[in-house]
């Protein structure tokens, strides 16, 4: 994580301790958004998690906030059907009492065990949100380390490039590939995004199961808390 991105640097220094305490506080689910008209008023900065169905978005969010049951996890692709908003507990939502940041768990794109009409509705919701949310500061595009970037991942990145929405690649399930394969995957992914104008160049490899890479994602999120980013 570069110094330009994160003032709450690594665990063990003052910045890392501040970040640890921030994410250790209770977080709560505040709203599920099935369509754009139900979006909350634009207030605190938002970071969103996008990825193919069953890529591990909910597990990663749970790991970031240290709460196993905050975001629902399932082995069934397409379980998340709305934009799900999570914020630190203790904020009223009134003017002047807004949370420093909101985490948004998005419906997975691609395959889902649901009727095509429903999947199309989720996909439209995702794309409309990505195009039109002024408080959206970064999208973490999750890529399964076992499979790499697929066409629908590239399509989402192209949309984000056109909309000038900053995004960062997070490799999930990185413990499922060999220690020799991971650096090669990271290099190939960096090359794939090198000319994409909205892509943040640093890639984060994570494992929700093993816990590695979580602090790096926390640091990337913390950069935008309270509008600091």
From TrEMBL:
Superkingdom of source: Bacteria
Its organism's taxonomic lineage begins at: Bacteria, Pseudomonadati, Pseudomonadota, Alphaproteobacteria, Hyphomicrobiales
Ranges for domain EngB-type G? 43-227
Q: Which gene encodes it?
A: engB
Q: Which family does it belong to?
A: Belongs to the TRAFAC class TrmE-Era-EngA-EngB-Septin-like GTPase superfamily. EngB GTPase family.
Name assigned to this protein: Probable GTP-binding protein EngB
TM annotation in the entry: none
**Role:** Necessary for normal cell division and for the maintenance of normal septation.
Q: Which GO terms describe its molecular function?
A: GTP binding; metal ion binding
**Cellular component aspect of the GO annotation:** cytosol
Record-level GO BP terms = division septum assembly
What CDD domains is this protein classified in? Answer: YihA_EngB
Alphabetical UniProt keywords: Cell cycle, Cell division, GTP-binding, Magnesium, Metal-binding, Nucleotide-binding, Septation
SUPFAM superfamilies registered for this protein in UniProt: P-loop containing nucleoside triphosphate hydrolases (SSF52540)
Q: Which PANTHER family match?
A: ENGB-TYPE G DOMAIN-CONTAINING PROTEIN, MSS1/TRME-RELATED GTP-BINDING PROTEIN
Q: What InterPro entries does this protein's entry cite?
A: G_ENGB_dom, GTP-bd, GTP-bd_ribosome_bio_YsxC, P-loop_NTPase
Q: Which cofactor does it need?
A: Mg(2+)
Concerning Gene3D superfamilies, the annotation shows: P-loop containing nucleotide triphosphate hydrolases (3.40.50.300)
